[in-house]
């Protein structure tokens, strides 16, 4: 299929690529790994044969779970035949006798290696009522049978649109029921674009973070503020971003935010050889053990979620090497924390996106402080009431304008000649958004007129500073 | 200031948004020595704007104050001078996601209209993408070009004054996405197909009327477009209110606690009237060319 020109190379499927499988409206995210069995829509197969083919190719699953590219002709042929059709359904009886093929017959056909299209043709030929069905009913019949017997799969390059559709369709619970059009509003309302510095707080499996990263295109920086032990973002892997995108991604544990604001977060290097702490054992040092075990947990969460086995087999290594590794990891983590802290300390982020199962109010109030004035923010919640609370609090507190609490209503249409109408089912709700723009307050003006160094902010950031005084005394 | 890059400080030549209240914003071209009248009196650009930080509170001559905001495509959409009916943010957001726009995307658009969507596209495809926008109205095309320059996004866009139905987009095989907002989109479907990359791409047509959608979809199917999908997105705004609901008097009751009266309730109300329809969005995918 591919004529091998250089032009094709960005469109080629490679081993190790993260791809999306598609059949009808069903999607699944997988990685191309050789000899790895993939299960999709109750069928198993191997993706090895897809390597070297182009993205958007449709494959037929043939015996042994191998993939074979479908020739474009096959796809089109079925529809074009002239058909004998009935006018209405007055002569059609629901007696269960119209199909002469039995389930066993169909199984035999399958074993003989008949393709989905051929089986459907046999079903039509053996249906006593097909000819009496109206043209519309015939279409519907074929569509239904296609869904059941066709065993094709299309391999697509992952995009934010497909990821959002997939999560919404398969696992809405994992993304706090964030509907794709709501995600679209968030990315636009937060003015997410290349070159900016965006804060993200999400518990949507990495979908929102990945969506923000896609819109940034590897320019600027994204800081994931994460709750608990470690950042959970299995979804980001499935976007299949080039390596340099990940250089722009920082993460910062939200449990260190108070320390950061108070200027007591210590990210100075520890002696890597002895593993001894730097001479200022403080908040950060105390929190260090917490940091240690949890990211490992999160790695497990990630691999479980994407269904892949762990790559490293750390367990088999000697204790000594383990300790060494731990220290190296610790150092690595410290560096990352310091880099993320440096990004935040400027208090000059360009955008804030929140979408989580946590109560949005404290998260928003805390993270808004990291934004420059005149920058947009958007908060998603599955429920309206917490956003009403956020709205009320922001109105009291000031420092924001253009506050809006919204949701979107999404309706799909069937458009067919003389049969155009809204779909019979629609999504009942896609969640709620609170959006707004930061402005300068007397408070922030004061803070910003000083050096942004966190030590000095200790004086102005009252809540954190007060807390600090208590612990110091 | 640029529509694709934030700045901290307001400078001479910038376009800034003066925020006077929720439903009251206006775009201002910042010029040394110039003045702008607001509902709270005049703002002197040299003294009140230039050198100030975006987001600053500015006191006007009559003592009231306004905020000066950094422009974004979304603020531009609600403040721009209308030369045509425009696309609003709810549709724009959906279009951007469903067309899979991102930095580096090459997009073809027609018509340019008042440039509401164009600015949002440019924001998303910068710094490496390009927008080819075609407008059949000569003055509108020219005005849009001027605005792109003022907003410092002109390096990302080519404006052509032509009828897309007859002349197409002036480019072939380069676009990742095509957007049509014209009276007879079915006449431009072949041009959309020609403009899209040989490896395939996505297109969207915006039409207020279902009859237009039907004809467009027929043309799309005839041109072998796939995955057709027509949808409609409506924004619902929830106004946050405190309401108090009085309690009726049921007469004396010895067991009932003393009357506390009703506590005010924080809730939301829908607006009495709201925009119910803008247009139908029809999306389609152009498959890879057969020869590939």
From TrEMBL, chain A:
Cellular location(s): Nucleus
Origin: domain of life: Eukaryota
Zinc keyword on record: no
Residue ranges of the region described as Disordered: 69-99, 266-334, 441-473
Chief localisation class: nucleus
Any GO BP: tRNA methylation
InterPro entries cross-referenced by the UniProt entry: TRM6
Subunit structure: Heterotetramer.
Function, as annotated: Substrate-binding subunit of tRNA (adenine-N1-)-methyltransferase, which catalyzes the formation of N1-methyladenine at position 58 (m1A58) in initiator methionyl-tRNA.
Protein name stated in the entry: tRNA (adenine(58)-N(1))-methyltransferase non-catalytic subunit TRM6
Taxonomic source organism: Hippocampus comes
From TrEMBL, chain B:
GO terms under cellular component: nucleus; tRNA (m1A) methyltransferase complex
GO biological process: tRNA methylation
Entry EC number(s): 2.1.1.220
Keyword Membrane appears in the UniProt entry: no
Residue ranges of domain tRNA (adenine(58)-N(1))-methyltransferase catalytic subunit TRM61 C-terminal in the record: 64-255
Any GO molecular function: tRNA (adenine(58)-N1)-methyltransferase activity
InterPro entries given in the database record: SAM-dependent_MTases_sf, TRM61_C, tRNA_MeTrfase_Gcd14
Keyword Acetylation included in the entry's annotation: yes
Reaction catalysed by this enzyme: an adenosine in mRNA + S-adenosyl-L-methionine = an N(1)-methyladenosine in mRNA + S-adenosyl-L-homocysteine + H(+); adenosine(58) in tRNA + S-adenosyl-L-methionine = N(1)-methyladenosine(58) in tRNA + S-adenosyl-L-homocysteine + H(+)
Residues involved in S-adenosyl-L-methionine binding: 114-117, 135, 163, 181
Keywords annotated in UniProt: Acetylation, Methyltransferase, Nucleus, S-adenosyl-L-methionine, Transferase, tRNA processing
Main location, first listed in the record: nucleus
Function: Catalytic subunit of tRNA (adenine-N(1)-)-methyltransferase, which catalyzes the formation of N(1)-methyladenine at position 58 (m1A58) in initiator methionyl-tRNA. Catalytic subunit of mRNA N(1)-methyltransferase complex, which mediates methylation of adenosine residues at the N(1) position of a small subset of mRNAs: N(1) methylation takes place in tRNA T-loop-like structures of mRNAs and is only present at low stoichiometries.
Entry similarity comment: Belongs to the class I-like SAM-binding methyltransferase superfamily. TRM61 family.
UniProt-listed PANTHER family: TRNA (ADENINE(58)-N(1))-METHYLTRANSFERASE, TRNA (ADENINE(58)-N(1))-METHYLTRANSFERASE CATALYTIC SUBUNIT TRMT61A
Protein name as annotated: tRNA (adenine(58)-N(1))-methyltransferase catalytic subunit TRMT61A
């Amino acid at each position: 299929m591919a004529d091998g020109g250089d032009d094709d190379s960005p469109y080629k499927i490679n081993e190790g690529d993260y791809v999306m499988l598609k059949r009808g409206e069903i999607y699944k995210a997988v990685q191309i790994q050789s000899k790895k069995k993939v299960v999709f829509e109750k069928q198993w197969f191997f993706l090895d044969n897809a390597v070297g083919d182009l993205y958007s190719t449709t494959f037929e699953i043939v015996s042994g779970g191998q993939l074979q590219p479908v020739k474009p002709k096959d796809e089109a042929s079925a529809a074009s035949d002239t058909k004998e059709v009935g006018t209405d359904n007055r002569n059609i009886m629901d007696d269960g006798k119209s199909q002469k093929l039995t389930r066993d017959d169909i199984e035999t056909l399958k074993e003989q290696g008949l393709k989905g299209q051929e089986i459907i043709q046999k079903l039509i030929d053996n249906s006593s009522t097909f000819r009496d069905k109206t043209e519309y009913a015939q279409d519907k019949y074929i569509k239904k049978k296609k869904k059941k017997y066709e065993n094709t799969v299309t391999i697509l390059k992952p995009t934010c649109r497909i990821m959002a559709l997939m999560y919404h369709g398969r696992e809405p619970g994992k993304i706090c029921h964030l509907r794709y059009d709501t995600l679209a509003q968030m990315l636009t309302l937060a003015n997410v674009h290349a070159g900016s510095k965006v804060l993200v707080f999400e518990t949507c499996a990495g979908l929102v973070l990945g969506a923000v990263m896609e819109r940034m295109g590897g320019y600027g920086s994204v800081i994931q503020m994460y709750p608990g032990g470690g950042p959970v973002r299995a979804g980001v892997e499935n976007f299949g971003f080039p390596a340099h995108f990940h250089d722009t991604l920082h993460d910062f544990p939200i449990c260190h935010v108070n320390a950061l604001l108070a200027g007591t977060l210590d990210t100075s290097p520890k002696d890597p050889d002895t593993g001894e702490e730097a001479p200022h054992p403080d908040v950060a040092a105390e929190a260090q053990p917490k940091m240690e075990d949890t990211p490992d947990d999160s790695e497990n969460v990630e691999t479980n979620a994407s269904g892949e086995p762990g790559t490293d087999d750390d367990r088999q290594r000697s204790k000594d090497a383990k300790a060494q590794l731990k220290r190296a990891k610790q150092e690595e983590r410290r560096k990352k924390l310091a880099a993320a802290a440096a990004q935040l300390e400027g208090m000059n982020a360009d955008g804030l996106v929140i979408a989580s199962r946590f109560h949005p109010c404290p998260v928003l109030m805390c993270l808004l402080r990291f934004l420059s004035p005149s920058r947009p923010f958007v908060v998603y919640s599955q429920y309206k009431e917490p956003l009403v609370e956020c709205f009320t609090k922001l109105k009291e507190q000031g420092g924001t304008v253009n506050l809006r609490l919204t949701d979107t209503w999404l309706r799909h249409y069937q458009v067919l000649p003389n049969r155009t109408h809204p779909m019979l089912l629609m999504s009942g709700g896609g969640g709620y958004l609170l959006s707004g723009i930061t402005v300068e307050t007397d408070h922030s003006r004061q803070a910003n007129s000083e050096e942004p160094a966190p030590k000095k902010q200790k004086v102005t950031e009252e809540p954190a500073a007060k807390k600090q005084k208590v612990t110091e005394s | 200031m640029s529509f694709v890059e934030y700045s901290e400080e307001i400078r001479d030549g910038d376009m800034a948004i003066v925020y006077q209240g929720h439903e009251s914003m206006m775009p201002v071209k910042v010029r040394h020595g110039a003045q702008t009248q607001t509902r709270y009196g005049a703002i002197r650009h040299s003294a009140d704007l230039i050198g100030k930080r975006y987001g600053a509170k500015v006191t006007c001559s009559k003592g009231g104050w306004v905020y000066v905001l950094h422009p974004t495509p979304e603020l531009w959409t609600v403040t721009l001078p209308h030369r045509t009916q425009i696309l609003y943010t709810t549709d724009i957001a959906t279009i951007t996601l469903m067309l899979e726009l991102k930095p580096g995307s090459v997009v073809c658009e027609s018509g340019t209209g008042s440039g509401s969507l164009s600015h949002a596209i440019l924001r998303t495809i910068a710094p490496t993408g390009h927008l080819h926008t075609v407008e059949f109205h000569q003055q509108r095309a020219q005005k849009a070009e001027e605005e792109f320059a003022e907003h410092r996004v002109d390096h990302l866009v080519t404006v052509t004054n032509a009828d897309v139905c007859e002349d197409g987009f002036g480019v072939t095989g380069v676009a990742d996405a095509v957007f049509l907002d014209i009276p007879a989109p079915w006449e431009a479907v072949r041009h959309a197909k020609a403009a899209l990359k040989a490896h395939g791409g996505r297109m969207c047509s915006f039409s207020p009327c279902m009859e237009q959608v039907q004809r467009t979809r027929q043309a799309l199917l005839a041109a072998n477009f796939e995955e057709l999908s027509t949808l409609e997105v409506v924004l619902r705004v929830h106004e946050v209110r405190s309401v108090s609901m009085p309690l009726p008097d049921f007469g004396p009751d010895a067991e009932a606690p003393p009357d506390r009266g009703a506590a005010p309730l924080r809730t939301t109300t829908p607006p009495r009237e709201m925009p119910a329809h803008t247009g139908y969005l029809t999306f389609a995918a152009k498959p890879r060319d057969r020869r590939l």
